[in-house]
Design goal:
Helix content: 25-40%
Structural class: alpha/beta
CATH superfamily of the largest domain: FAD/NAD(P)-binding domain
CATH class of the largest domain: Alpha Beta
Shape: globular
Number of strands: 21
Distance between the termini: 57 Å
CATH topology of the largest domain: FAD/NAD(P)-binding domain
Length: 461
């Protein structure tokens, strides 16, 4: 690895950010024989997904899932007299798993394929960056892949250090007595249910009228019912007023259905979304446009308003999903190299929420089909009438699919056990532009959870 840089160095590509999108961009450029620098000033290399997102959260969610089913095994005729979480051991296992992923990514970033620059940078023009100690870095093309940061709405008492963020929850080596979770998005719902299942008293406070606004209202309703059935207090349609300290505890005050409510807990978790990490880059100097949410505006080939600069991942959206960030990073570089490339088809995007029941979707949602005035037929089938899910005591949820007049699949949604796995036959069918009749030629094995798809597919065919 090159460690020394002069007061002015030039590269073919400079990628700002070493997470999923940034590494994908850098790898693509290096594979094309280009000189590549990666700028990453984070204290630990690896990116959000590996260090503080997907991998640690899903490790802990799986633990909570196993514990929940052990504690509720009597309905299966099992006698498991005691099931508890050793949080120190759980945390040690998580750290070991994450270290393996992080070490591998760090090894890739530190390889001699790239020049790694571990400094904060800002644009001084559309052709150059300046590091915090005054060095100048020039490039033929830049890729902004700085990710996102925790969002901090203006609420009295809601301040860093006074309340937790997801990083704090993912690093817990003890079980908190009680937590108020602020937010109702994917991260809020996943972590709230995880804590609740581990044994923490959880109250979830969501500002909008329902949880999981990223999902369909029907899907959100199923998850919310599961939360309430598991004993989690859930408030929607609220207005946060203040968070106050009461000795060693926290008091959350909010308005709900015209009345002021107060909930006291040992801790408060701010899980009210994330914001693009675009501050501090001095993008005005590079003539890079931002939208009202602070996201970098890009075209279908990930180019910003300055075509020498591209962006990929959470910093530009439109979705905050790792596999999409990787696709964007690769596309950004391939387009910059002048290759013939196809834009990402967001009509076929796959999404998963790892609550229990899980929520997964592929393709165009029912709401978007209606908004775009696309003609479609839909069919659905419930898990509580399906053989495999009944014997598994996995009765929450449903599957449903949407097709056009010719029977071609347009979208699908699954709410239920292992929905994140079950959605992939539909994702593959969408990628292949398959019709429902041809999908039924597959051998759907009985009894499996997957065969539940045959019911809506038969209706649509």
């Amino acid at each position: 690895m090159h460690t020394d840089i002069t007061m002015s160095r030039h590269f073919d590509f400079v990628v700002i950010g070493g997470g999923s999108a940034g590494y994908a961009a850098a790898r693509t450029a290096a594979s094309a024989g280009k000189t590549v620098a990666i700028v990453d000033s984070g204290p630990v290399l690896g990116g959000l997904c590996i260090l503080r997102g997907c991998m640690p959260s899903k490790t802990l969610l799986y633990v909570a899932d196993i514990l929940h089913h052990a504690r509720n095994s009597a309905k299966l005729g099992l006698r498991i007299h005691k099931a508890d979480a050793d949080m120190a051991a759980v945390q040690a296992r998580k750290k070991e798993i994450i270290k393996d992923f992080a070490d591998y990514r760090a090894g890739q970033l530190l390889s001699d394929r790239f020049t790694l620059i571990r400094k904060n940078v800002r644009f001084v023009s559309g052709e150059a960056l300046e590091t915090e100690d005054g060095e100048r870095i020039e490039a033929g093309h830049f890729v902004i892949a700085t990710g996102s940061v925790v969002n901090w709405p203006k609420v009295p008492g809601l301040e860093p250090g006074k309340v937790w963020i997801s990083d704090d929850v993912l690093d817990l080596d003890f079980l908190p007595e009680s937590v108020v979770v602020l937010g109702g998005g994917v991260v809020a719902c996943e972590l709230a249910q995880m804590l609740n299942r581990l044994g923490t008293k959880v109250t979830l406070v969501q500002r909008s009228g329902r949880i999981l606004r990223e999902c369909s209202p029907e899907a959100a309703a199923v998850v919310e019912k599961a939360f309430r059935d598991e004993g989690m207090e859930t408030y929607t349609g609220t207005r946060l007023l203040a968070i106050e300290e009461e000795g060693c505890a926290r008091l959350v005050r909010f308005e709900h259905h015209g009345q002021v409510k107060e909930v006291q807990a040992a801790h408060v978790l701010n899980a009210m979304g994330r914001s693009p990490a675009s501050d501090g880059l001095n993008l005005d100097a590079a003539c890079v446009e931002l939208n009202e949410q602070g996201r970098v505006v890009v075209d279908e080939f990930q180019r910003t308003s300055n075509h020498r600069i591209s962006a990929a991942g959470d910093v530009c959206g439109p979705v905050e999903i790792v596999h999409v960030a990787i696709m964007q990073g690769e596309l950004a570089v391939e387009a910059a190299l002048g290759k013939k490339v196809r834009p990402i088809d967001y009509d076929k995007v796959t999404r998963v929420v790892f609550t229990d029941p899980q929520v997964a979707s592929a393709g165009i949602s029912k709401e978007e089909l209606d908004e775009r005035d696309i003609a479609y037929t839909e069919a659905s089938y419930p898990f509580d009438d399906h053989g495999k899910s009944i014997l598994m005591e996995a009765k929450y949820g449903y599957v449903r699919a949407f097709a056009n007049a010719e029977g071609r699949l347009l979208g699908a949604e699954c709410v239920g056990r292992d929905a994140g796995e079950l959605i992939h036959p539909m994702a593959l069918a969408l990628a292949l532009n398959a019709d429902c009749r041809s999908m039924l030629r597959a051998h759907w094995y009985h009894p499996t959870l997957s065969e539940i798809w045959t019911y809506p597919l038969e209706d649509l065919a």
